[in-house]
Write a structure and sequence with these properties.
485 residues, globular, FAD-linked_OxidoTrans_Type4 (chains A, B), Uridine Diphospho-n-acetylenolpyruvylglucosamine Reductase, domain 2, 8-stranded antiparallel beta sheet, 35% helix, 5-stranded antiparallel beta sheet, FAD (chains A, B), homodimer, alpha+beta, Alpha-Beta Plaits, 5 domains
Chain lengths: 485, 485
């Protein structure tokens, strides 16, 4: 469809000011946090209400125009990458906290609400929103829902999907649905699970009901320095094996520590081959006891220095190194890939050795930062794009790390999502039958494949392409139209 | 299809001994725990392996014969009610614990494994399987997955869906799929949420990977007697409002207490209008402190007697009254309906008053037993079937209670499922659009509507009946064949 005609129709639906077609302004939206992919959208709409979103999606459905929803644009897998012939629906303009229901421990928010803002709003009542991506100061709840975002404290508290109890969804055909609510269970299919983490491929979320978590009475944090990742990994296994569930256990290896020091001078112990940050929260009496137990496990597995945060300032300093690690890598390498993979926790030592071997053999440096308790790795693969062949080699090592994760029964993404970036890796993890089953759901919601097309799935198929499975033909298939998105 | 021909084909696939067609033996399977509905299946197959199940389902798909999977048959909503022209696939014969992976806190089990057996098998290692339906001595994990079963301790530990991380599924077209695994997250749609609680309408689960929970260091239990449910309800609100999350808070009203006393002589305090059982578990130091806090809240809200279990025997006695409450009602009434509904916890006092009013106006006695912390009501509606009109009046009151739950933002079932029994209530809770959205998923997995047809959904539609939504036609629709199941 002609862009001018489309823009004019959208202006009639949502008002002139909400529709952007100026090329310079459109470029603001050409990428998300994964800047290596850039596409300028045909039109941008700044959504103000659910009715706006529904009207825009209905228009897209009628004209078979693809659309992509975008929150704060902090995603690391290109999940909010625009479509060149499509509409980018900006949701960060819907940012009201609609309700804080303290008695039922729920909040209802628009998707553009910033993650940390919600916790700030509920802290005076003694509650907070538990999932805490490192980007929580800027990322939005809607984006967290799309990617099923995790964070350092998800070991104890669970991922976004464990904290969402209801959604308002505009389906790809433009209908407004309520899925779930405040009550803990509902009959019928529990589609919340399928929707959280569906990366915008099943519609646009316009309101989110989340669980609020009681602020812990006490929090204690330690930083333990080890000779290497083997010893640190053994300490993690010992802590978890003893039945302790820390609020967080984070590990950084020597190269990641070097980068963090260069960037934010976090003052981690010198000579550490690995550090662990372990945080325990809960009732004060319990925290003290468990904390001593954790210290014991660290000593027993070779920690040569253990620092205990004396106050909030020191605790913040421990975390500063960890939370700035991704960006800090820029200090020691001109370019890098932030990888994201998951392994069963018990496979940590073996996978870390294999990564070290991959790195040695290829000459590509890899810094490791990860949510050790969850087995969620974030290898940072370093390279210099100005040197011929380096980016290709880095890409190879990066892919080989994902293969390692799969071989050990893990996953190609823990919390960053598949998006544009990892769709090609999906067949390494899933069989054709597995992917077909996912496609059944995609086609059920989005028969025309207009909701964030080209993301998640490696080879977009026309819905109804395998009549043996779908038992029905897609009208486009009858018309002989090929997949265009 | 002719039953003899079907049976012969099935015998060729799974062996003679596994196929039952003898009328007398078939009658064993005519109902589940909801005995008011009875249907004798055409054929019963005793499944021994995943390959058996896949072969049977493929045969059913080829012949368009409906099938129903059944575990221990303890369900309370008629979810395993057979189809008169269909195959009942008995899964209780697949009852091996395939793996206990202590280091990753996971177990892999066949669906016929009894809930409590799994905990017994893992207790020596210090772990157990947390979801604990009252029927846990006899119900199977596969049935728990179908119904997303809860239990008294789900307030703190969550429902079945919070403890399942992987499934092996035979889809209604006979394909074997792995959904999820041991790792905590996977890319693509998270279909675990949609599958757990789908009541057998999306296929047959043949293996379940579950999370194991560390046994708590300490458990303390109190029984508090109140003048009435208002005071007990206020105590519940105060406890939860203070940020305490007990392992369980169960409430019984005067009539439920009377029934339990008549049946099992549990010796609850005399003159109680309501009792609360509150259980606190966790590290010993914490349990003691929180327990005192809970006692304080009970006293403050009018508890006139508080007993603290001195040992496991006394603790078991407290629970005996509660856990036998459903069956005990048979002592004070010849017939009764076990209702199951959910409300936001804050609506408890209002809904209880309304139930009392309904009961007074209709002359139908209602005993209340419930998971108070979750707002999960189990009203027991008493009647005498031999008295003309009583069962109809009881049915009316029972339905009116569900309406109350819906009006207060709750749900028509907390943990027993929709099954055969509540399909007709679904339109009171969901709009046509909501139900159509669920149907999209149903049709994606089961285009021929052969997997447990007639359950959950009020008016089974032919898949593809609304071309505006589904964008495709169902072959049966083209052939002019009506919905037959």
């Amino acid at each position: 469809m002609d862009t001018d005609v489309l823009a004019a129709r959208l202006r009639a639906l949502v008002g002139d000011a909400a529709v952007i077609t100026d090329r310079q302004r459109l470029r603001t939206y050409e990428c998300d946090g994964l800047a290596q992919y850039r596409v300028v959208p045909a039109v941008v709409v700044l959504a103000a209400t659910t009715a706006d979103v529904a009207a825009v999606v209905r228009e897209c459905a009628a004209q078979r125009v693809p659309f992509v929803a975008r929150g704060s644009g902090t995603g690391l897998s290109g999940g909010a990458l625009p479509h060149a012939d499509g509409v980018l629906v900006v949701m960060s303009t819907m940012r009201r906290i609609l309700e804080v229901d303290r008695d039922n421990q729920r909040a209802v928010v628009e998707p553009g609400v910033i993650n940390l803002q919600l916790s700030r709003a509920t802290l005076p009542d003694g509650y907070y929103y538990a999932p805490d991506p490192s980007s929580q100061q800027v990322c939005s709840i809607g984006g967290n829902v799309a990617e099923n975002s995790g964070g350092a404290h998800c070991l104890k508290y669970g991922f976004t999907s464990n904290h969402v109890t209801g959604l308002e969804l505009v389906t790809p055909t433009g209908e407004v649905e309520q899925i779930g609510g405040k009550a803990p269970d509902a009959p019928g299919y529990d589609l919340l699970g399928a929707l959280v983490g569906s990366e915008g491929t099943l519609g646009v979320v316009t309101s989110v009901t989340v669980r609020l978590t009681r602020s812990p009475a006490d929090v204690r944090t330690l930083l333990a320095a080890f000779p290497g990742t083997d010893q640190a990994g053994a300490a993690v296994s010992a802590i978890i094996g003893a039945g302790v569930i820390p609020a967080a256990i984070e590990m950084m290896d020597a190269l990641a520590i070097e980068a963090a020091e260069a960037a934010v001078q976090c003052g981690y112990p010198e000579g550490a081959g690995a550090v662990l940050i372990v945080e325990i929260d809960g009732p004060a009496s319990d925290v003290q006891k468990v904390f001593e137990e954790v210290e014991g496990h660290c000593h027993e597995h070779g920690a040569f220095e253990i620092r205990i945060a004396a106050d909030d300032a020191e605790r913040a300093l421990f975390w500063k190194g960890r939370k700035s690690a991704f960006a800090a890598v820029g200090r020691i390498s001109p370019d890098y890939i932030v990888q994201d993979g998951v392994i069963p926790r018990t496979a940590l030592p073996e996978v870390l050795s294999s990564i070290a071997r991959l790195s040695a053999e290829s000459g590509v440096r890899v810094a490791n930062v990860f949510h050790a308790g969850d087995g969620n790795l974030h290898p940072l693969v370093l390279f210099d794009d100005s040197v011929e062949g380096e980016s290709e080699r880095a890409e190879e090592v990066s892919g080989a790390i994902l293969d390692l994760c799969i071989q050990h029964g893990g996953s190609i993404t823990g919390e960053h999502g598949v998006g544009s970036d990892k769709a090609r890796y999906m067949p390494r993890m899933f069989t054709d039958d597995d992917l077909d089953t996912m496609q059944l759901v995609r086609c059920a919601f989005d028969p025309a494949s207009i909701s964030n097309p080209g993301k998640v799935f490696p080879t977009p198929r026309l819905c109804g392409e395998r009549p043996g499975r779908h038992q029905g033909a897609h009208p486009l298939a009858d018309a002989g139209v090929a997949e265009v998105f």
